[in-house]
Design a protein that fits this description.
This protein has 396 residues and is an alpha/beta fold. Helices cover 34% and strands 18% of the residues. The protein has one domain: TIM Barrel (Alpha-Beta Barrel). Helix 6 packs parallel to helix 7. It is globular and about 60 Å long. The two termini are 20 Å apart.
Length: 396
């Protein structure tokens, strides 16, 4: 309480009870507002905020315009960093970094990599055989997804994302709610294929994150060296303990499962309901064994209106966690998770401490007491600073 923070360049230089402002410095009096690190999303999809039909029929220019709008909404909701969990966001990341458009700092994964009949394979029964014709859906053509089989092709796909500038690598090792050919209980990629992805990523000083809901897939991923499990809604206590023992992160989401994404078939909707039903057991088991390597994210896709309510995720987690625990997940915990990648790292994020990156919010009210204030970022986020630059300042 009552501390001062000195920002120089893009870093927090000093924190003390009293700091003499350097000549020419801008002085902002918080006047009792809550100072917080910027929020961090560990599983976001900046490219996919359109209906399922639009995803499979739109051109790259439309994708870019939608993603630009989405990125700005993230930043002005207080999210200063996001790990994009699938999508060709490399140009968007460059445009944000150069100040051409406004948005959060992007930790890009590039194309999500899966096997045929896996989570990235959106070819329908009406499509020609991809073996015979090499036909793929436009998400593969646009570089948002990659469908490969066998160790050599996995290595090629991983190395291509690294060449484009990926911070980390995303693979799918189990079924998904939004894909057509894989129930949630299937396991995808052989151990050899997963190990190849992990080695290729590790050679470039980064790690692999894996989409998977079921225990068998999670265990295979852990045994092969994956360091971040995405979703895991159907996990049991024993598998969570294995994650804990191996310092593997859980990148979990809640809000996305409270609605059925636009364009889902009945089969997809049923898988989505199955995933939602597993969340309670997942978090209760995590609390029981003291597993706290839990990231914060939304996984929102196909419904742009939900992006206007990003901060509802704070509310959705209150059935299992205190406000303090949730804020920690959305800041320091997620910052630690993203920090596993040493590619293009800006420094330490998600904390207010000397030497950390200056991603700072001033909040009108105390989110430790009431998360509802975060649901109205336009009026209650009075200052948004990312990388030492002020994007919004309502402080008088």
């Amino acid at each position: 309480m009552g501390m001062s923070v000195l920002v120089k360049g893009n870093k927090i230089e000093k924190i003390a009870k009293k700091i003499k402002a350097p000549k020419g410095a801008q002085v902002i009096n918080a006047n009792g507002r809550t100072l917080s690190p910027g929020f961090i999303g560990t599983h976001e999809h900046l490219m996919f905020q359109m209906s399922a039909g639009e995803l499979l029929t739109s051109d790259t220019r439309y994708f870019a315009y939608v993603a630009t709008s989405t990125a700005k909404k993230y930043l002005y909701s207080g999210w200063t960093s996001v790990r994009d969990a699938a999508g060709n966001t490399f140009s968007l990341k460059t445009a944000i970094d150069k100040g051409i458009v406004e948005g959060p700092r992007i930790y890009a994964s590039g194309a999500m990599i899966s096997q045929s009949a896996g989570h990235a394979d959106h070819c329908l029964g009406s499509n020609h055989s991809s073996i015979i014709s090499e036909d793929h859906d436009i998400l593969v053509e646009y570089g948002d997804m990659a469908v490969v089989n066998g160790v050599p092709k996995v290595l090629e796909a991983v190395r291509e994302q690294l060449r484009f500038g990926a911070n980390q690598i995303k693979i799918a090792v189990g079924g998904g709610t939004g894909s057509y050919a894989d129930p949630l209980d299937v396991v995808e990629f052989t151990p050899e294929e997963i190990k190849a992805a992990v080695q290729a990523a590790g050679d470039y000083n980064t790690y692999v994150m894996a989409h998977v809901y079921n225990n068998d897939g999670i265990r295979r991923a852990i045994e092969c060296g994956v360091k971040s499990i995405e979703h895991a809604n159907l996990v049991d206590e024993e598998t969570l303990q294995l994650m804990k023992d191996n310092d593997v992160w859980l990148s979990a989401q809640v809000g996305v499962y409270t609605f059925i994404p636009h364009g889902y078939t009945e089969d997809q909707a049923n898988k989505h309901r199955q995933a939602y039903a597993g969340i309670d057991n997942m978090f209760k088991a995590a609390k029981k064994i003291g597993f706290d390597k839990i990231g914060f994210g939304t996984d929102i896709i196909t419904d742009p209106s939900r992006i206007d309510a990003l901060n509802d995720e704070f509310i959705f987690r209150q059935d299992w966690f205190t406000n303090a625990e949730i804020l920690q997940q959305a800041t320091s915990k997620s910052g630690e998770l993203l920090g596993m990648s040493h590619r293009f790292s800006p420094g330490k994020i998600g904390v207010i401490e000397e030497g950390a990156v200056a991603d700072i919010l001033l909040i009108d009210g105390n989110p430790l007491e009431d998360f509802k204030i975060l649901q109205d970022p336009e009026n209650n986020l009075h200052l948004i600073m990312k990388d030492g630059k002020i994007f919004k300042n309502l402080v008088k």
